[in-house]
Amino acid sequence: MKKHSFKAMLAAALLFGGFAFVACDDDDNPAPGTRPTIELKNMVAVKNYVQSGTIDAVAPGASTTFSFHAGKGQRLMFAAMYSYSNDLFVAPENPGIELFDDAGVPRTGVVANALKLWDNGTRVNEAPGPGVVHPGVAQEGVVTEVNGTDSEGHTYPAASALMQVSLEFDAVKSLFTCTITNTSGNTSNETPFSGGVYVVSNVIDGDLVAKTPFFNRDQKSGVELTALAENGDTAPLYQLVAGQTGIITTLQSAIVVVYTGDTNPIYQLGQKDAQLGLSALAQRGDPKPLRESLSKVPQARHIYIMDHTAQPGESLQCTYEAAENEKVAFAAMFGYSNDWFFANGVALDALTKGDVTSKTVLLDDGTAVNQYPGAGNAQFMFNGTVMSEDKPIEVVGDEFPVPAVADLIKVTIR
Questions:
Q1: Contact 229, 143 (CB under 8 A)
Q2: How many Cβ atoms sit within 10 Å of the Cβ of residue 88?
Q3: Residue 253 CB contacts under 8 Å (≥ 6 apart), including other chains
Q4: Of the candidates 323, 339, 299, 275, which has an alpha carbon nearest to the alpha carbon of residue 331?
Q5: Is residue 293 within 8 Å of 266, Cβ to Cβ?
Q6: What digits encode the pLDDT tens for the residues 207-254?
Q7: Domain residues of the chain, as ranges?
Q8: Span 158-187, mean pLDDT?
Q9: 291 Cβ contact partners less than 8 Å away, ≥ 6 residues apart
Q10: CA atoms of 91 and 124, how far apart (whole Å)
Q11: pLDDT band, very low/low/confident/very high, at 27 (cuts 50, 70, 90)
Q12: CA distances from 165 to 78, 182, 210, 377, 412 (A)
């Protein structure tokens, strides 16, 4: 490599500290022309939960089921009213039921000690039973655990004796089925349980977004949980969490290629992955294998990688060398997926300027089985193991409630 090329790369590295830039074939282009900058901004609005829903009421001796997707580190939280009370409810301890062990193995079967019995603190407790008068006498209390007796001295068995929780897991779909059984009929405190509300927290950088989804121990309850705890009314709490539920993602590294000719060197829609390294980018955010392969393609004039993660609100960007009659292509991993990536859907003049988000598409590489975005245990974000498939590259469809591309990413060239 000539000395002037090394200086150009060094200047780029200093100008854009934290980003990686690798150019190919600089010596073949002694008059580089202009130097546009491309920015890929993560436009995702952070949501507390990746999924949420309601649970049916369950009478003594009966069961109900509901299903949800999750990956390692995510938790299940739900709450339901102890109906023969003034304001008691059952729920796990914050942040919810642990669904996987440290090795990523799902918990299945009966979950021992999954639940606790809680006093919402908004009504004076009468003796539990079918004769409880609702709504009862108001009080200004806080959410506390009922551990054997409530604040008025009424006795209760452990929550695990009143309700049993069991889990089944479909590894391909990363789908849990939760069965709730009302076992209170075998105790002195037989009670129906109201309908309930459940959530699965989103994860950012390995941390739960919502660590106290419904309540905080020893603090006042919200009006939404109060409606559930006092009246078995799920609507206010469900409406609250539904508005905080949605798919989010990172931009998990990117590649930019300046090229000649009419063929996008990164991918071809409707054709299978060319095995040049795109799958490494789409599955685990690693652009280096694709850069290495494209460095041997004569039409690929310059190649740049951004081997970093852009969280919601953050950007990946680089400045590239381009000349007239050259085109530019880019790809960035949809980080909360099994093998999805953003790319330009049409050819882009390398010297174009402006917002090109409308020309950006979200694609499925077809090399890994899809799971619910941000809740699939085989996904890279959960250190999962890929389940391979062999399909053509296609535009991501509507199997999952993925936001529109413009709500996920903004691509600008300036």
A1: no
A2: 25
A3: 281, 285, 286, 287, 305, 306, 307, 308, 309, 316, 332, 333
A4: 339
A5: no
A6: 999 999 999 999 999 999 999 999 999 999 999 999 999 999 999 999
A7: 3-45+248-413, 49-242
A8: 97
A9: 22, 255, 277, 303, 305
A10: 20
A11: very low
A12: 11, 9, 22, 21, 49
CB neighbours (10 Å) of residue 157? 15
Query: What is the per-residue burial (b if ≥16 Cβ within 10 Å, else e) of 242-280?
Result: eebbbbbbbbbbbbbbbbeeeebbbbeeeeebeebbbbb
Least confident of 19-28, 112-121, 271-280, 331-340: 19-28
What is the length of the chain?
414
Whole-angstrom distance, CA of residue 138 vs CA of residue 124: 6
Single out the residue of 140, 176, 169 nearest to residue 67, CA to CA.
176
Q: Give the helix/strand (H/E) hosting 69.
A: strand 63-69
Rounded CA separation 148/157 (Å): 6
Nearest 5°: phi and psi at 117? Answer: -100, 130
Residue with tokens 């009314």: 233
- Alpha-carbon Rg for the chain, nearest whole angstrom, is 27
CATH code that applies to domain 3-45+248-413: 2.60.40
d(CA 305, CA 259): 15
Q: What is the pLDDT of residues 29-78, one digit of tens each?
A: 434 558 999 999 999 999 999 999 999 999 999 999 999 999 999 999 99
Q: Is the preceding peptide bond at 106 cis, omega within 30 degrees of 0?
A: no
> HSE on the CB side for 95, CA within 13 Å?
17
The model's pTM is 0.89
The C-alpha atoms of residue 389 and residue 121 are separated, in whole angstroms, by 53
Q: b/e string for 320-354 if b means 16 or more Cβ within 10 A? A: bbbbeebbbbbbbbbbbbbbbbbbbbeebebbeee
CB 25 within 8 A of CB 301: yes
Gap between the Cα atoms of 45 and 354, Å rounded: 23
CB atoms within 10 A of CB 110: 13
- Return d(Cα 209, Cα 266) in angstroms, integer: 34
